[in-house]
Write a structure and sequence with these properties.
Layout lengths: L3 H45 L3 E2 L5 E2 L2 H27 L3 H28 L7 H5 L12 H9 L2 H29 L3 H27 L1
Antiparallel strand pairs: 1-2
């Protein structure tokens, strides 16, 4: 028979042993799970790591996004160059206002896209507008160097008409590129900018068509 004292002693010993075992089990189990989880995550990350955009954390990008930025940068730069010519050469008030609006919208967009390429570790267009003018780079709406020289030489009413005709073509090219990005790109920020470009420039094309009707 066990005395009350011996029973209490046995229970205390068992409890202590059980606690120790539980602590040991928890420690081993926790350490093992943590180690395996870390191993699994690193393996998965290495095997299927997407290309990540630091501009928008967690957002991947693909070749279509890169091409969109690389082509739209010089395309925008040429539009800005045309808009700057209008500041001193255009005679129509609405054209001057539209040109200022184009420059104000596209300058920041150029900086945004340059930032993407830098973040993505992709090259910038080698020589901006000069590298693209008059060359077949699959860039719709880009004005040849000869046409740009003609625009630069024009003034007054002649400039106004030439500017609007060229800018309509230029905008239509940008809209086409923006639609391609929306269909083929994966980066949310790039696709959103493409949608903005399409919407804004389509409205400007409609405005310029009306300007042409009255020139």
């Amino acid at each position: 028979m066990f005395t009350q004292q011996s029973i209490v002693k046995r229970l205390s010993t068992a409890a202590a042993a059980g606690t120790s075992a539980l602590v040991l089990l928890t420690a081993c189990g926790g350490g093992g799970d943590s180690s395996m989880a870390g191993h699994d995550m690193s393996t998965t990350s290495s095997a299927a790591a997407p290309t990540i955009s630091t501009t928008q954390p967690g957002a991947s990008f693909n070749d279509a996004d890169v091409m969109f930025a690389q082509m739209m940068i010089p395309h925008h730069q040429q539009a800005v160059e045309m808009a700057e010519l209008a500041e001193t050469r255009a005679s129509d008030k609405e054209i001057k206002e539209l040109a200022a609006k184009i420059k104000a919208a596209q300058d920041p967009e150029i900086e945004t896209m340059q930032g993407w390429l830098q973040d993505w570790g992709k090259p910038m267009p080698t020589d901006g507008v000069n590298d693209m003018q008059g060359m077949d780079h699959g860039m719709p709406g880009m004005m040849p160097a000869g046409d740009m020289k003609k625009l630069e030489a024009a003034k007054g009413a002649a400039f106004d008409k030439m500017f609007v005709q060229m800018m309509v073509s230029h905008h239509n090219g940008a809209i086409e590129m923006a639609k391609t990005e929306q269909a083929q790109g994966v980066n949310p920020a790039a696709k959103e900018l493409a949608k903005t470009i399409e919407t804004a420039q389509q409205a400007e094309v409609e405005q310029m068509q009306k300007i042409l009707d009255r020139l």
